[in-house]
């Protein structure tokens, strides 16, 4: 009636915060709340999913997303094309949260050359080449030409030259023998002697010499290497005679006394006492 005022709709108080009548908000835990007649009514958020492989709800969200796909625990972007790990030759695509997969259609009988043999339960096509039939994957060489290797792949023959190893010898030592496909290295010529220094001094094989030390002897071996060995002097005497150029002292020729050499049975005065006479006795 005129002059009367309509009753006001009360607001809601929720956890110390005022809410206007009809207000709607989302609480943690994906609960949807609304203010009605001064009371707060809450219920779980309803998430209608319109795709087969939705992505989990993003951080802070409640409902999964169809802007991508979740397939076998792997997130796929919109329009992504992939092959499942355990589905041989199957191709899948992610469209609007839905995953569609297509498997190859394999005709009966032999496999077409454009389809891998492990995608179909069929027998790969054989090859007919120069009057002979070869199974798929067979390797063979041309008649009279062992340097060319051929292989049968899905009904077609592919030929190529046999691979050759990489040689580490210079060009002038490489050799192609009769019936061989690849070059080989010739054996280096046998050495004629031994080079012992940078001046080109050469000793023939079997030559024995001393390199400067009379107690060391060297020999030129058949492979061109030099083998040296020192001489061990085992004979000792109280007064040995050392002959220049000789390794071991001589105990059979005489005696050395005060820097002088005396022969066997030779007498001479003593340097310390002129009344004494000495004699060299070799024993």
TrEMBL record:
Q: Which residues form the VWFC domain?
A: 10-67, 67-128, 125-186, 192-252
Write down the PROSITE patterns for this protein, in alphabetical order.
Answer: VWFC_1, VWFC_2
Gene3D superfamilies xref list: 6.20.200.20, Complement Module, domain 1 (2.10.70.10)
UniProt xrefs under Pfam families = VWC, VWC2L_2nd
Q: Where in the cell is it found?
A: Secreted
Q: Which GO terms describe its biological process?
A: cellular response to virus
Q: Which UniProt keywords apply?
A: Glycoprotein, Secreted, Signal
Does Transferase show up as a keyword for this record?
no
Where is it found, in Gene Ontology cellular component terms?
Answer: cytoplasm; extracellular region
| Highest taxon listed in the record's lineage | Eukaryota
SUPFAM superfamilies found in the cross-reference section: FnI-like domain
* PANTHER family the record matches: VON WILLEBRAND FACTOR C AND EGF DOMAIN-CONTAINING PROTEIN
Q: What name has this protein been given in UniProt?
A: VWCE protein
Species the sequence originates in: Anhinga anhinga (Anhinga)
Upper classification of the organism: Eukaryota, Metazoa, Chordata, Craniata, Vertebrata
Gene that specifies this protein? Vwce_0
């Amino acid at each position: 009636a005129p002059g009367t005022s309509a009753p006001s709709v009360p607001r809601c108080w929720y956890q110390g915060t005022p809410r206007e009548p009809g207000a709607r908000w989302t609480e943690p835990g994906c609960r949807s709340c609304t203010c009605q007649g001064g009371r707060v009514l809450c219920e779980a958020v309803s998430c209608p999913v319109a795709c087969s492989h939705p992505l989990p709800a993003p951080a802070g969200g409640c409902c999964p997303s169809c802007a991508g796909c979740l397939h076998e625990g792997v997130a796929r972007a919109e329009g992504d094309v992939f092959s499942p790990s355990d589905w041989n030759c199957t191709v899948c695509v992610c469209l609007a949260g839905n995953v569609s997969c297509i498997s190859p259609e394999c005709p009966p009988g032999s496999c077409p050359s454009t389809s891998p043999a492990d995608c179909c339960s069929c027998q790969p096509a054989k090859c007919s080449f120069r009057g002979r039939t070869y199974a798929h994957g067979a390797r063979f060489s041309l008649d009279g030409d062992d340097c060319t290797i051929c292989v049968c792949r899905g009904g077609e023959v592919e030929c190529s030259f046999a691979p050759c190893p990489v040689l580490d010898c210079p060009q002038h030592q490489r050799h192609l023998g009769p019936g061989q496909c690849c070059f080989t290295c010739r054996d280096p010529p046998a050495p004629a002697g031994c080079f012992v220094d940078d001046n080109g001094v050469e000793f023939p094989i079997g030559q024995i010499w001393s390199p400067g030390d009379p107690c060391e002897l060297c020999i030129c071996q058949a492979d061109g290497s030099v083998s040296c060995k020192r001489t061990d002097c085992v004979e000792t005497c109280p007064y040995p005679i050392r002959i220049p150029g000789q390794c071991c002292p001589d105990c059979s020729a005489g005696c050395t006394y005060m820097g002088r050499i005396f022969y066997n049975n030779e007498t001479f005065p003593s340097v310390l006492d002129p009344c004494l006479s000495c004699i060299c006795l070799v024993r």
